Amino acid sequence: MTDTDLFESLKLELRRGSLILAVMARLTTEQYGYSLRVALAEDGLEMEESTLYPLLRRLESQGLLDSEWREEDRRKKRFYRLSPAGVTMLERLAAEWRRISASLDRMLPNPKTDGEGQ
Q1: What pLDDT digit, counting tens, does each position of 79-94 carry?
Q2: Considering the domain boundaries, does residue 113 fall inside one?
Q3: Is residue 26, in this structure, part of any structural domain at all?
Q4: Three-state DSSP class for 54?
């Protein structure tokens, strides 16, 4: 495996958990699949449909999302929103994310400050 292949593989692992949190954060406001993909992309998180829809189904099966089919612009669309259990889980996961992120910020080298004053 080349360094590039290894990097891409590890990057994918790193993104997986982040995408779950991002999708849940975006679904505090009701969205349908395409609008959710656009919102995530606008925030810098591109996600393929082949990743998004299985994730939505899994979160719904875990009781974290509610969904319903509705007609909008003459098309049937499935709208998703966090369930009450999803809201609670998002709060817990966000707190854990912040804890991990703060720990990593302390551990990882900072290219802006490392090496200054030498």
Answers
A1: 999 999 999 999 999 9
A2: no
A3: yes
A4: helix
